Amino acid sequence: MNNKGSVFIYGMMVGLIIIILGMALAPAVSQFTNGARNTTTADSLGMNCSNSSISNFDKAACVSTDLTLFYFGAAIIFIGGAIIISRIIFE
């Protein structure tokens, strides 16, 4: 196998590792997001998003915190996919 073939396989492996790592870290990000959105307890500080009488600014913070998992997953898949696609196009 020549150098181009080796670099192609290496690039594909790096792209897949980034995607797999992102999917493995998704439960931890989800747990962090849920902890941030819950009510304040003795052990943790939360935003109390389930309360309907919070201000609009707190509601916006709850929505943006809730979208964290989606943004994290989309960014990791995009980065891994970009590496894989760049190896296919430029090889």
Any overview of this molecule?
The chain is mostly helical. The chain has one domain (3-32, 51-89). It is 75% helix and 0% strand. The protein contains 3 helices and no strands. The protein has helices spanning 3-37, 56-66, 68-89. α1 packs antiparallel against α3 (68-89). The longest helix is centred in the first third of the chain and has 35 residues, at 3-37. The radius of gyration is 19 Å and the shape is elongated.
Which features does this protein show?
single chain; 91 residues; mainly alpha; 3 helices; elongated
Task: Summarize, please.
The chain is mainly α. Helix content is 75%, strand content 0%.
- Give the class from helix and strand content and strand pairing: mainly alpha
Instruction: Give the helix proportion (percent range).
Output: over 70%
The helix/strand series, from N terminus to C terminus, equals HHH
What is the count of helical runs? 3
Number of strands: 0
Averaging pLDDT over every residue, what do you get?
A: 87
Are there runs of 5+ residues with pLDDT below 50, and where? none
Query: What percent of residues are in strands?
Result: under 5%
Largest sheet: none
Q: How are the elements arranged and paired?
A:
Blueprint: H1 3-37, H2 56-66, H3 68-89
Helix pairs in contact: 1-3
